[in-house]
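Lecture notes, unit on binding sites. The following record was shown on slide 14. It pairs a sequence with beta-D-glucopyranose.
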Amino acid sequence: MNNPLNLSIHSLFSIGIACLLPMLPGCALTLTAQAPVPDSPAIEAQARAMVAKLTLEQKIELLGGVDSMFTRSAPSIGLPRFKMSDASVGVRTWGPSTAYAGGVALAATWDKDFARKLGEALGRDARARSVNFLLGPGVNIARSPVSGRNFEYLSEDPFLNSALVVPYIEGVQSQGVIATVKHFALNNQEFNRHNTDVEADERTMREIYLPAFEAAVTKGHVDAVMDSYNLINGAHATQNEFLNLKLLKGEWGFQGILMSDWDATYDGVAAANNGLDLEMPWARFMNAPTLLPAVKSGSVKESTIDDKVMRLLRAELRYGFTTRPQFDPADSTYSVAGRAVALDGARESLTLLKNEGQILPLDPARIKTIAVIGPNAYPAVTGGGGSSTVQAFEPVSILTGIANLLGPDAHVLYSRGLPDMPDVFQQTRWQGGVEVATYPSRDFTGAPETATEGGITKWSPEWWGPADKAPRSIRYSAAFKAGKAGKYLLLGASAGNDSYKVIVDGRALPNAVNVEGQTPQFWTLDLAAGQTVKVVVEYLPGFAGIHFGMGLVYQADLISPEAIEFAAKADAVVVAAGFSNTSEAEGADRTFALPWGQEALIQAVAAANPHTIVTVTGGGAMDTRSWLGKVPALLHAWYPGQEGGTAVAEVLFGKHNPEGKLPVSFDRSWEENPSAAYYYPVKGADTSLHVTESGRPAVDYVIPHLKYGDKLMVGYRYWTTTGKHPLFPFGFGLSYTTFKFANLQAPATAASGSTVPVSFDVTNTGSLAGAEVAQLYVSDPSAKVSRPERELKGFEKVRLAPGETKHVTINLDDRAFSYWDEAAHKWTIDPGKFVVRVGDSSESTPLSAELTLK
Ligand code: BGC
């Protein structure tokens, strides 16, 4: 290539055409972050020349990360280290940042354009922090509502995930930042995530769990992929030949970087030979002591190492990381534009599930006094917990959002309604104190140090103990005497990697063992007046330090009297309930039941005021059975990011017409979810104490194998195939206006493999502007194999003024009609009859047409 100015290949793409003549006035060579250039022979040659200058040791050094969030540098070839950050809902790793409605909230928008805007905003936020790799998006399927990271992922449907992930990735990468699609693959539970071996057949993987990854690679051209912690059909993801070599780098032609999740590598040679390019956060296994002898003995080829280094360099050159600063002075960590994107996302994602008697929208002129009650009313709940948790700039809570919208004349009454968890621990009156036996061992053996303490609580603020203290085991023994008859809440919580077992009157409580992190656990005990129960807790700290608390309180006493007084005198009440970053977080599964005390709070408030509107936060469905019939309105807020409170207020008071649609089926109970029977190995629960466990069955935690016996029957595929109905179907969401679908047109016959256009009209038949999501489902009644009754194969978000009609055309490609043929090992269309259905949810498809594929 003719390169007279001696600029690097990338620089030539970074500057405007006029600047190829830098002597022209007004032309300065500013090398700002920008979209990557495609791979080219010149880039390949440059990367190869760099590899050739490295020794084998130096090449191996590049295969591991450093300082938790960086690739390694290679000073001998002038290669600096490059910076990473989590993740899907905001650039969280490097200080405060904009917290968006990402993950499941993005999926609830059903808006491809918004996915691109979100990706661009994340890319800009990354550049403002000199971040080269964004460690998102996460696209694992929401198979079960209790999976602890659903909130970071998208939906239960592979088509919806694929459709959103492509513009999202394009948006991030257009800003000169590498997106990392994760967690590859079948990481559909947080429970025991390092050890779980997912056993799934190929058709299930191809049709349900892999399409979003495939689309990210083949259509979104993502430049990094992150392997998950779990095993898949017997091999950890980081050494899984089928996933990494056959599919990702083989069939899908991935040329980018395959990195491990943090500490998800288990065998250096196996990982090196099975596709892993970069071990994060450091080279614990893919390092010189392991790989040098392996290369010498021939068990790992040097060309395999070279290929990994080439992938790193190729990406870094294509993005110009070596020739321009990643920091772009046009962007700042605090971003007004980002705030607007965060507000848009929150507005678009809020999903109205119930609105009996049209109680919503509330009329600000008629609501003189409003009570805002609940643990999620204040402070703002912007996201779930774990590595995605963003320290948001100025998050707006539901309380402040409502107060801001109503203005200074409004009477806004606030009560948290429930105590804080540490208060429950501290207020518990154990009879005669608590015996604490601290053993020098991990298994309650040896001579314990004993003490008597007032309570079981070392919860806060000592979260991380001194590093020089080895973990011990501790047995707490205490007695509790019930003052009055009725239901008592037994509440326990520990730190992330701790585990504990609770024994009441000699019987271990169901689910009372903790592996690899746990959200607070709770049980309800039915006690007689004067009954004394003996509570023993066997606690194993995962880290040095003690981070455990337990309390036992009369359930009705939890609810603060002022909450009920406020509710009684208000014109309307908003109860802000749901999960938060302490009750739904990475590293643990969550309960299906709402967090402790909330059901009782909703019931008590609803009894005091019939105009009670419930908002919930969470990554999916939750148990509404005890209270939904008692309240007229339910708004699902997902995790709406830092502007969520403003958007919730706008929807409640009709300043924004709700437009979110469920990206997951909303089950009534955990047990009715189609994965429930296969999710945890269940052992018999001892219920003789009248114990109600908090949303999950008792579990044998030493599971290595999880067989996905639910196969293709995930979410609405199960509900529509069985003809049963969840509480709210996938795709459902109410609006303050009404829509009509008409004039479906589809060809009566078409050739297999051709593109099939399907068109129809959507009309806003109400009196308010609003948005509808037109959803297209395909059925294959004449297939040779059994297929789900219907599958989403197209959708379009349509914004309509009152009375307006828009004509929508959706082009169905061959995949829309195909299934994975296990015998032929390929995508197959069985010619014959198909049905296309169009409507506003998986269960409401007023239009349908038959077509025959020849
Ligand atoms: C998570 C990843 C995350 C990484 C770095 C891991 O625990 O599973 O999703 O990107 O940490 O923070």
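Take-home: The pocket of beta-D-glucopyranose is lined by residues 86-87, 135, 182, 261-262, 387 (CB under 6 Å).
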